[in-house]
Here is the input.
Amino acid sequence: MNVAVPKLQHHFEDIPKQAHAARLGMWLFLGSEALFFSGLFTFYAGYRAHHPEIFRLGVAHNDLVLGTVNTFILLTGSLLISLALWALRAGHRTLAVLLTACTALAGVVYLVVKGAEWGRHMSEGIFPGGRGDFFVENPEPAWAVFYTAYYGITGFHAIHVTVGVCILGWTAWWMHRERVGPAAAYKLAIVSLYWHFVDIVWLFLWPLFYLLRNPA
Amino acid sequence: MNDFLRRLLYLPEQASTIARDVDTLHYFVIGITMVGAAGVFAAALWWSIRYRARSFDARSITPRVQAGLAVEGGLLAFLVVLFIVFWVIGFGQYLRMRIPPRDAMVIYVTGKQWMWKFAYPEGKQTISTLVVPANRDVQLVMTSRDVIHSFYVPAFRVKQDVLPGRYYTMWFRATRPGTYRIFCAEYCGLSHSAMWGDVVALEADAYQRWLEGEPLENFVQLQPGPPMARVATDLGPDLPDYPPGIAEASPPRSMADWGREVAALKGCLACHTLDGQPHIGPTWRNLWYRETTLADGRVLIADEAYLTRSMMDPMLELVQGYAPVMPTYQGLLEPAEVGAILELIRTISEPLPTPARPPEPLVRPPLAPGSPDRVDPARALDFIRETSERVAP
Amino acid sequence: MKNYLNAETTIWSWLSTKDHKRIGVMFLVSVTLFLLVGGIFALILRLEHLTPGPTIVSPNMYNQLFTLHGVVMVWLFLIPAIPAGFGNFFLPIMLGAKDVAFPRLNLASLYIFWVGALVMIYGILDRAADTGWTFYPPYTSVTYTKATPVLLGVFILGWSTIITGVNFITTIHTLRAKGMRFMDMPLFAWALYGASIIQLIGTPVLGLILLMIVMDHGFDWGLFDPARGGDPLIFQHIFWFYSHPAVYIMILPPMGVVSEVVATMAHKNPLSYKAIAYSTFGIAFVGFLTWGHHMFTSGMSEFNAGIFGILSMSVAVFSAIKVFTWTGTLYKGSVWIRTPLVYVFSFLFLFIFGGMTGVAVAATSLDVHWHDTYFVVAHFHFIMVGASLTAFLAALHYWWPKITGRMYFEGWGVAGAILVLLGFVGTFFPLFLVGNGGMPRRYYHYSEQFQALNVLATAGSWVLALGLLLILVTLIWSLYAGEKAPPNPWHSRSYEWMTPSPPPKENFPETPHFVRGPYDYHLPLEPP
Here is the structure.
């Protein structure tokens, strides 16, 4: 176990203070990310208020099974990363590395499923911007904005998942290469915070795009 | 007093029923706040001088003065009350502005790049000049054809944004006859600042006579209209001098006259000039049967067939050096109207030199998929074939 | 003597620095450059308005110039200038810390700033945007100009802002010197805290709406196209949700500077430390609730208009509290009138005046007449130039000795301040009047009756430009010929003056223990 990691920076008194600052910084950053997604939800809410019935039909047209599978995948990922954090704090570095890598894998599976969903929509002639044959058969303008919002919002979330996968992968490799011990747990903690956030955002997307399909 | 303050503050004339009240609030708010501001600033200056440093020493000490809660709270409360008073009066006036009276007469307004078009229930249509009766409630029902514009009449102190895809209402009551400037007050592209017009308020009987067909110049001295509509008047001596922006109600004398009327009504003259000036689109002067170079390098003759195709599917054979902004007139022009425009173009070709100046690049109006402006080229060719036969020389 | 400037002198030592002071200096140089760029755009705009018709540029170029003037001034100067410049330099020192919480992120914020700026410059040089800095659709979705790089540049700059916000808040929470409670911090730290909160909460919303309009403009997504179910008003709501609090990002740090300068130059405690600290948070919070006042004529419901009107009136009260506190601080002080305080007088005059016109536009019926006219332009320039830029210049002179180790030239300092004040008033006061007369903004042509006042405004702009040039030249000259600065030329009690000018790399020669509060002018320097 390498006790030189993490390195104490010159402007912090000790590692606990450095860790505290890192965690605070990540919470603040996630706060700003929460506003980003809140803006997107506002967007969705505004347009759904304009076109309630077509949005409902659009949600009903989405694949509930795939959406729920994705929810399960992300929740599993969150569980895995929590276990990884526990493992690292308990000194089980190899287990922590493995669990972190599995979380990254869960993210990849999520992206594959999401990609398959998008592929299915595209094969039906649904593209962003109201392009595609679907919109010729369904010329109501609200369909265009529903699907553009769907691609846009799930797209931004997918970008965040991808970033999370990369960071998780890098973190797993770093923990392994540096042979870190429990003292470095706070670094894994802030990464896991980001992953939990990505998961929570999905927990909002799931109802908005998959569950809210029944007549009021 | 009202007039003195109005002039001092450079405000326009008060020509609507709400204008004077708005100005009164203006004087009240600005007066009080400026007096307050002056007082505070004077205190700052006075204390800086009265308490200026006599000696300068790092060890010098000043008394610790803290504002008590009473002072802070009192000031806070005073300001809150004062500002709420301003708001209450202002909001009351705003509600009056927004809620039209029950029996207001309605006029329909469309804003589009870059002109205002007005349609009256009695059937008349005008461009850039809104003709209303004075001392009557007028409600405008407005929308936009393309981007956001804003209908603003400073003399009435009223303004309303117009958005595409929605209708907005606004109302006013002009207090006396006169001519009042309309401005577009929401940036809308290249000629945003040229998108102005006039409200012409007439006495009730004059308004009635105008509705029945008397030309507007009988009632009011007309200034040159805004640039878009003004070009409609710039023609040779044989042709009637149309007042700017007004559609003539009397029958035209010749097919070319009619062509000019159609060109003005349908907005062609917003982009094509008749006097040789390069503008958004090629000028029509000396266009007839001239060699024309297209954007893709081909050269062809601007004959009736080409000119008709240009109206129906402008993107097909765009002239070199011009931006691709012309909308299609498919379905918007009767075949006879197409012919009248062609006749107009034919009559204004003379062997005169035209000044050369490169045209300015331009904005593309929104052409949403599925919008009628997006034409299927195959259908256009059929139409062109049909009409070409009818307008052969 | 080794200080942060000469500790290492290679270019690489600057480009790879983690020293918040060097990063602050690099930000200051960067924002000053963009102030000049935005200023030149403004001078051309005013030259164009010497005549009602065409003067020196085409309508198209005019539309691009006012757009870029706004974009450059807001995002490349006003937002970063005081926080990323002076905040980076002084926050750790004022807290008795050795650096900000995340020095590497701090350096990253500088590079991200430059990447964003370069993307924007590319856009400017290519086919620039002509949409106005507010990028309203549907026009922005359809304009032929190259709005995308400009929009993406702003989006990238948002990241720089967010990093700064995270860094400052974390620094304030975790790196205060032993024994320094929140209520013991210099007020500049409070101002940065408030601005950082707004940056964290507001900037992401701007980022998302800019991405939406990039999709619309670049890929024709039709998100705001009514023919495809879109709604241009949703853009306005989301855009202004950020952009109104953004103006508080642009004014809170300047207010922090004023708090510092007034207390020091009056050699006296602020009339109420708590009033300034709490009103900062009042502005940061209530500022998020007022965005609709940009949309009174856009067609929103009367009910909404009413709520936004009341809330807009409320936010003015917090600013008024600060103004009274600063003014009251002069009472029974020992006031030393030097250039920084001259700038503060300018600030007070222009901020109060401009702020009162802000109260006036919150009266909804008055705003109907003034919206989108030069009245609004004059109002916000009174605040952004008259208050924010003036405070920036105050900070520049106040902290020049500490940053550079040299004194500026006092006579030229006052001359510059007066020229800037006169030039500014000459430029923007006439614009209130043409706005009253009904001249809309973003107008290439204007009605002839507005010409005289426009000519006056243009003349004012030359005086303003002259003043700024004078300041730039004399400050640079002072780097070579100014007298060497003592550690505490203003005899201030605030903590940045407890270290040499310029400071050593580690900020303090030894770990500081502050025995006095930053405003304890009623107590002797050292305890007995």
Remarks:
- The two ends of chain B are 69 Å apart (CA to CA).
- Confidence is low (pLDDT under 50) at residues 228-253, 351-378, 387-393 of chain B.
